Amino acid sequence: MRGFDRPTLALCACAAAVYILVLLATVTGLLNPYWQRVLDQALIMGIGALGLNLIYGFAGQFSIGHAAFYGIGAYTAGLTSKLLPVAGIPTFLLALVAGTAAAALVAFLIGLPVLRLKSDYLGIATLGFGIMVKVALDNSNRLIPEMGGATGMTGVPQTANFGWIFLFAFLAILVCRNFVFSGVGRACMAIREDEIAADTMGINTTRYKLIAFTLGCALAGLAGGLYAHRYPFLHPSIFDFLASFDFLIIVVLGGLGSLTGTIVTALGWAFILEGLRVVLGSSFVDWRGVIYAVILILVILLRRQGLFGNREAGLLVPAFYKGGKHAAAGG
Amino acid sequence: MPLLEVKGLSKSFRGLVAVRDFNLTLEDGEIVGLIGPNGAGKTTVFNLITGHFPPTAGEVVFRGRRLTGLRPHQVARAGIARTFQNIRLFKENTVLDNVRAACHTSIRYGVLDALLRTPRFRAEEERVTEQALGLLELVGLHDRAWDRAASLPYGDQRRLEMARALALVPTLLLLDEPAAGMNPAEVRQLVELIRKVKERFSLTVLVIEHQMGLVMNLCERVVVMDFGEVIAAGKPAEIRRDPRVLTAYLGKGAVA
Amino acid sequence: MDWNYFAGQVINGLQLGLVYALIALGYTMVYGIVKLINFAHGDVFMVGAFIGYFGFVHWGLPWPLAVLVSMAVCALLGVTIERVAYRPLRYAPRIVALISAIGVSFFLEYFCSLSFVFGADYRIVPRPMEDVVWRLGSVSVTNVQVLIMVVVMAMLVLLQWLVYRTRIGAAMRTVSYDHDTARLMGVDVDRTISITFAIGSALAAVGGILYSIAYPQIDTFMGVIPGLKAFTAAVLGGIGLIPGAVLGALIMGQVEVMTAAYISSQMRDAVAFAILILVLLVRPSGILGRTEPEKV
After folding, report:
1. How many Cβ atoms are within 10 Å of B65's Cβ, its own excluded?
2. What value of ipTM does the predicted structure carry?
């Protein structure tokens, strides 16, 4: 009864189709393990980036410490799995819950004081927090030796495979869609557009900024937890401020306020980065960073609103929002 | 019990007195005008009532309840809605969503309901959408419901702001220069709209306005401010002839 | 409490803070005039250090000349970056220019690390002069520290004169208030902005060279963290305000050195940023910043 109107059913069907396609590609060898990993990474980044889009694209809160929550989720989930005596699916799921919850809790506590700050200052504060988390992770072995500190953490059972990652990516998309296309989402967007007017129109801006921030960071935590169970080596440098920039780049290039944009750009970003490695070959691999930078500058110069602007693929738009709401051309 | 009582309201910004000892009483169902030269402090009075910033002194009592010191969203929930002098729409949102955003105060579902798409969520969404569409129809913007708010012409934007304010289901409506930039024909339409809306929703209205046509036609009572203080109050016809008011608007030498 | 050690650390903190100040000034001036966080600024600092190094070591220039050459190159670089990557986006939403700045930052770092440019290896910068240590009572000061202090103070005085006593400075201040008004008053906005970038970049070049004298190991990613800290310092002091940038930088340098000396070297970044966040919570617009209430 709940939740299954036509657009949602269509979305589920589409997801199932994509899943089957990828499975076929894997089985027939079209998608080799190397590119499988890239796909998984893309989806994981996508989950995290969706979270940032909620915070920044929809609620307008300029947070550039997102990778901190990605890291908190990864380490919490990884540690949980490592320390629990029994490996397997239940442990995995529990670890994910732990990672997501940890990220959400920290986000809530940090958000309370920090979300009062205005745009640029909020950015600095979140950036600073991100750096503090990274330093904490670097020194984590002093508190909990298993966390490895600056040498990194290993030994997390690699329970996450494409199936799980895809499932959680799909759930993340659903959650974000439901959030955005609801009164809660409208409140957040009102805050983004004009915080004073939103306040005057009865919206408790503090509450909704906090909700968006917590949920967005929780998604980062979930992404981190999945990462920990898919890639055998966790190191604090994976979660430094440059990683926060990665999320920011994905969200902005995809289009702030477009869930479709985030997903598409996360995939494109991961595949282009890896593709460059292949295309350039070993002799020119140094040029990878240069070309990435040039692509970044060119894309933002030529399409400043991002690939999808703030439009959404028709597939993602639910009832009560149809009728004039533009569908992105070509999906 | 009067609907709104403002007593001794004062506001200073770092030594600059914007409003001094402002008093006002509004009874149910009145339409009162607040006029005065630019910089007189009229919008500041609105901001103080809606809680945008706290007063330096004085208090605001609404339906017997002290509103002083409450945050704007709490004031909105108490039943006071306003429009802004410089239109503050949610520009990138659709026209419909601008109104639906203000329906927020009456929404009876929480975040979890939204995320899980419970039946309660669906029912409320339907109700809210109906309400919003109805308001848009009232102000004549029904067929532009799905357009981007920023794409509306100026006059329509003002009407959207009014529809949005009405979505709060207020008891008191504060209008800040609703007729700014309008020609006489549009002002007449606006007066009709305000009357219609007031009757339909049993509102009390306090309106800041420079266009005397609107003030004279619409308001039963007028309060005049200058330099942060009330300098005159009474019926429109009396105010028009009051020498203090004329001095305020036209300068000292103008009153022969 | 070892006061000699403490005094020595204070001087170290001053040294670091003054170098940060040079970088922070570039950030704050650019932000003041185009409201952009120029993330590539730290990399201009890097280029400055490298050009100074090449000038002195490979091209045989005397140090003062190497510094001037570096300043000129960086000024040109800054102007070019503005022209190519920022000007087209000047009136777009600010995040867009920020992404472009991040792109430029990456570009400079990776391009310069290519073998035919600066190369990926780090270089050691030889000190241009013999180490001399002076003693003031029981505190020792090196000539490097004195050099840094003198040079930065001189630059600050110059900048102060430029901004408040010249026409170009008046133009910069006007443009920082409002572009359209400045245009209506006859100010060439584009040229003023270019000049601002040039000055900021030149200052960063000097900062890069001074930094490399004090901490002689340079590589193409050396500008990332100092740039971040300098930017943070500028915000801490009140972004857009020149005195704010200096104040914030001095505080930042002092906090960093003291934390490394008395708490832990690894924690110094965390403590510095923690202090920043605390300051922002109490003074949301930075120490010298003024919160302008938004007109409703």
Report:
1. 10
2. 0.92
